[in-house]
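This section describes the prediction task in plain terms. A model, or a person checking by hand, is given the sequence of a single protein chain and must write out its three-dimensional structure as a string of tokens. No templates, partner chains or ligands are provided. The sample shown here is typical of the held-out split.
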Amino acid sequence: MMAAPISQPWRGELRYDEPMSLHNSWRAGGVARCFFKPADVTELCDFLQQLDPQEPLLWVGLGSNLLVRDGGFPGTVIFTHGALNELEWLAAATLRAGAGITCSKVARESARQGLTGLEFLAGIPGTMGGALAMNAGAFGGETWNRVVAVETVDRAGCLHTRKPEEYRVGYRSVKGIADEWFVAARLQLESGDSAQAQQRIRQLLAQRGASQPVKQNSCGSVFRNPPGDHAARLIEVTGLKGKTLGGAQVSEKHANFIINTGTATAADIETLLNQVQGCVEQVHGVRLEPEVRIVGEHPAVQGDAGLTE
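The expected answer:
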């Protein structure tokens, strides 16, 4: 394992053996060997310049689409939420948002300015960096439909400005330059009515609350919707709604959510996810693809359990 840089005092936060259960929405998982929350982009660049180029890196915002295995992450976590949180208005109806700012704040502030097109972001429980990395979407909107440019940083700590055409963007998928990570996005909006935009956000949040277990610990949707169908429907008709494994449960409110009922380990969640995937494939011949990113190491010893009621 590579040592993290300690050659200067950092204005941000540098910690070791940081519990990642504190930094993901499942509230489960192991520790990160090194955890760094930069004070700003300049310090982030300085930090990366001192890292060994072979150091494993994991970029985390709110951790709303992340599972860190119980054995932990054997590298450095770069934590952006509360760090890269700038929000500024550029030319008419153009917004620059840092990778660490929450999607919901971007939606709300845009609506207050009378700018529309990002209301759907209010229903995404993550940061702009995560939304860019997976082309997050909800209620018919997708992040990259509004992107006019992104700002990235590479392993050497150098900043770049990239155009959308430099990326292959699909449904919940974004592929671009290797070893570059998003630090900000420039988004094109449309002029509209502020009151109507804010009302639209309230409606979307009410719709989300009525159909999803928003008050329970989950990662949001676990699986991508297969072409022409919905993952939740396939899971529900397979009879898996409410099934549990340890402290993990397929939500009774929305079948494409796996919740931590309070005692779930990362292994509980991952095993239940895999079993749901296998059952749906066996019954319907459809292999569901996970949206959630699973990283880290398995612990030295894992228990073996099955689905229970």
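For orientation: The longest helix spans residues 266-284.
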